[in-house]
Amino acid sequence: MHLTHLACTACGQRHDAGVPQNVCTACGKPLFAHYDLAAAGRTLTKDALRTRVKSLWRYREVLPVKKDADIVTLGEGFTPLLPAPRLAAKHGLNQLYIKDEAQNPTGSFKARGMSAAVSMAKQLGLTKLAAPSAGNAAGALAAYAARAGMEAHLFMPRDTPRANIIECREMGAFVTLIDGLITDCGAEVAKRKSAAGWFDVSTLKEPYRVEGKKTLGYELAEQLNWTLPDVILYPTGGGTGLIGMWKAFDEMEQLGWIGQKRPRMFTVQADGCQPIVRAFAAGEKFAAEHTGAHTRASGLRVPKAIGDFIMLDLLRKSNGGAIAVSDDEMISCTREIGAAEGVFPAPEGAACYAALKKLLNGGIVRPDESIVLFNTGSGLKYLECFGG
User: Does residue 178 have a pLDDT over 80?
Assistant: First the structure.
């Protein structure tokens, strides 16, 4: 609504938001949407939010779609921020919350990004969208493309959870299974897209999925009465949610809603695929590809992320960190969360609780800090991970 332009996150080059854009034409890095926040703030106020729709589109002024008619929605966003009192008591914590993204349409946080990306695709006149996916992003794109009357062309590793594959096919998407990882799927999209007339909506290879994901940051602030938690633990594959929240915090500060204080951000990865963890520990600006990536948490099996430098920068600026956990820890923590709090998390979400235990044991996170764990999806999508 108040979108002014796109700019490269690395070199700063401006790009026209009125035409379809992927990455920066100068350096190939991700683009960010920029807004006239002074104009947005005239109608986007804390008071105005009291009566608005309970979806991510309540933050309409800082989302990119111009006309309401182009919004493609299934009611995504404004998911509950659940106190976790039994888990908190177990570890002597003052405040522990679970942001439960499983309650989104299609059962994961990917609905946020795809709602924004498909809405912008509709505004820009696109009709055929393509993406590689480890599972949940494909399900979300299939749903929102169907809602918009568009084609969805999806490339997934052959061992993607069955629920995701079935979900996509039953919503009319064109599904191709690849022997390999999400990076191999991305290469296949890149190879075919020009001849097939597809627009690539891969993670951070178009500017608007991150806009949908940034609403996580707005919601956290609103749900905590315009304060931010001390610590956020977020499971990271491509990292769009982590990056989006950091962008939201900056926007909210410019709107005058919050101050300069930021949460300490911790990215959580799998032992078998931890490019950001390794790069963070080594003090590197970019993360080398993790060779031989393997983990049962399919959303964490992303050996190379285009937004690696953005993630590493924000982790350091926030005085946070990066930590890896094992698949066995994720699976045991799934049951622990479920039995204590009634939330059946995806393994990626359970990984955050496993990481929290390590951070508490190491004295890196203190019991008196307010902590938010992100459950990014439903355990029902990952039944193959659990014993019969």
Answer: yes
Q: DSSP letter for 290, please.
A: -
Facing residues of 34 across strands? 5
Structure tokens at 318: 């926030």
Contact 242, 265 (CB under 8 A): yes
pLDDT tens sequence across 196-238: 999 999 999 999 999 999 999 999 999 999 999 999 999 999 9
Q: Is the per-residue pLDDT at 315 higher than 90?
A: yes
Alpha carbons 62 and 126: distance in angstroms, whole number: 22
Per-state percent for the chain, helix, strand, coil, to nearest 5 = 45, 20, 40
Alpha carbons within 13 A on the beta-carbon side of 159: 12
Q: Cβ distance 351 to 235 under 8 Å?
A: yes
Rounded distance between C-alpha atoms, residue 308 and residue 215, angstroms: 21
CB of 308 closer than 8 Å to CB of 351: no
Instruction: Indicate if the alpha-carbon torsion angle 249, 251, 253, 255 is positive or negative.
Output: negative
Structural domains for the chain: 81-105+209-385 (3.40.50.1100)
Nearest to 352 by CA among 29, 100, 114, 127: 100
Mean pLDDT of 300-311: 95
pLDDT-derived band of residue 387, with 50, 70 and 90 as boundaries? confident
Which pLDDT belongs to residue 295? 93
Please report the DSSP string for 293-309 in residue order: ---S-GGG--S--TTHH
Q: In angstroms, rounded to a whole number, what is the distance separating the alpha carbons of residues 249 and 218?
A: 7
Residue holding tokens 């926030």?
A: 318
Q: How far is CA 93 from the centre of its chain?
A: 26
Verdict on whether the full-model pTM lies above 0.85: yes
What tokens appear for 141 in the block?
């794109």
The whole-angstrom distance between residue 285's C-alpha and the CA centroid of its chain comes to 21
Residue-level pLDDT at 237: 92
Q: Which pair of structure tokens corresponds to residue 178? A: 């690849």
| Residue 221 phi, psi dihedral angles, 5° rounding | -60, -45
- CB 275 within 8 Å of CB 242: no
